[in-house]
Amino acid sequence: MAATRLTADICIAGGGMAGVCAAIAAARAGASVVLLQDRSVLGGNASSEIRMHIAGASCSGRRPGARESGIIDEIRVEDAVRNPYRSPHLFDLLLYDLVRREPRITLLLDTDCTGCDTEQCRIRRVHAVRTLTEERFTLEAAFFADCTGDCRLGLEAGAAMRMGREARAEFDEPDAPAEADSAMLGSTILFTAREMEHAVPFTAPPWARRFTEDDLRLRSHREFEYGYWWVEWGGHLDTVRDNDRIRHELLAIAMGVWDHVKNHCTQPPDPSAAYEKWMAGQTLPAASAANWALDWVGMLPGKRESRRLLGPHVLTQGDVTSGRLFPDTVAYGGWWIDLHPPTGVDAVNEYPCRQIEVPFVYGIPLRSLYSRNISNLWMAGRNVSATHLAFASTRVMATCAVLGQAIGTAMALAVRRGLTAAAELLEPSLLDTLQQTLLAEDCFLPGVAARLPHARYSASSELAGHEAALMGNGITRALDPTLHPTFAACSNQWVSAELPATLDVEFDEERRIHGVDLIFDTGFSRELTLSMSDAFTRKMIRGPQPETVADYTLSAGERQLRITGNYQRRRQHRFAEPWITRHLRLSVDRTHGAPNARVFAIRIH
User: Fold this and answer.
1) Residues 331/402, Cβ–Cβ less than 8 Å
2) What is the pLDDT of residue 267?
């Protein structure tokens, strides 16, 4: 097969949530992108092939206000509005649609990275194969990103990496083992089921595993519609090279667990089980599964851990549990350090997870997102530079998504500035530009505020503690010390006392305004994600979020822009001709249910 040569500013391998957000961010920042995905759908563990819901720093509702903003919030809100009935296939289509809408992205589905050429510690080109169409590709770019999870691109490039658990003394991590080993978190195969109006029999295949109630006494199995994340196995093996063996064993385990639930479960599960603690506060269905029928079984393991690339900084347990904020923070995390026994369900005397508390959100530095020995290789997702313990917090998909947006934005900036190595972005003025760009794109960087031009804010009405003057502080979410001890309690938003309402921005002198960005409220006090779990979904609103401004008008003198039916948090407006004015007004007529207008920021361009 002759190779097709493609040239772009950026080449990204891996189309999970990290790769998708990296590609969209880079393309929106003006870079041309080739995105490789080895599957037919985007989304990785969030896709219809695996169906794990996207969790993040909010800890599934345990840390209100920490929900991720930026592109991942755009995706979550779009899914809630366009996919209220929770079809995993429509989520696939949504991600495909968002990528296809970006004219600067060339998407290659069903395409595997098979090699690369490096010269002087720099990737020159990547080789890829799409077997379905019998095509080979040679991809040339200024910068490359490994978002494959398994570090396939980094492996081909000879990037420094590691696998398994570090020894306790290496990074002074109290919960690491005394000696380093190859153990990892295992993989899971999920399944879904539906309740019928009559009893539905189930006969397990002969290759299914057999489980007793004693085997599952520490694993709650009351929730029937969404399988069990603890159907886990294979962390004691090589989760890359043994993946097929792991798949077959996980299918045997999944069928055996369902057989037990349907045919052999004689007593309610132990109410002290770790899963029930994790699901605390949710209403669990009755213990009988007689009327429940399988309607989908995953054939692709949802992988938690494999290789990790090494950057100049390796994020550690201490970084995570102390809430460390770095000078080069470009993203954040907050999920627990979530450890699972490597042998999964075979560890019958261990709870399926042990969660080490992460008291606050923490920063993730730029130095953990590029290779220490391949100068133009970036990484985002579960393969970033972190120890096994720190990775157990950063691995969740909403954190992977904000890491993806960070490196996509960073790579596009490096291309614009003509840089040749990722490390050059540590130069103070470039790092400041990167952080301010991320903030302008509605990312949250704990400890960093956006710099806004001086302006005076006034409103037709305002609630105490939510005054219009807060609009100028450069923070676009409510903060308090429960999120981080350095945060002062502040709503950081204007909230009107009634509707309709107006917000006025006045500048010291006339300005040529080429565009306006608005940051509204999409209810960060609640969870919002696509989940096949009925109990978890009851925490959410599947549709426009009630706090969000729906109908509004931007005006300056005779200039006017009227918008109806908005449901997104961030709205960008660019003008064909600049508005020349000292005064800008936002008039809010309607929200999706809240009795007042709620606005975090008005940013002018």
Assistant:
1) yes
2) 55
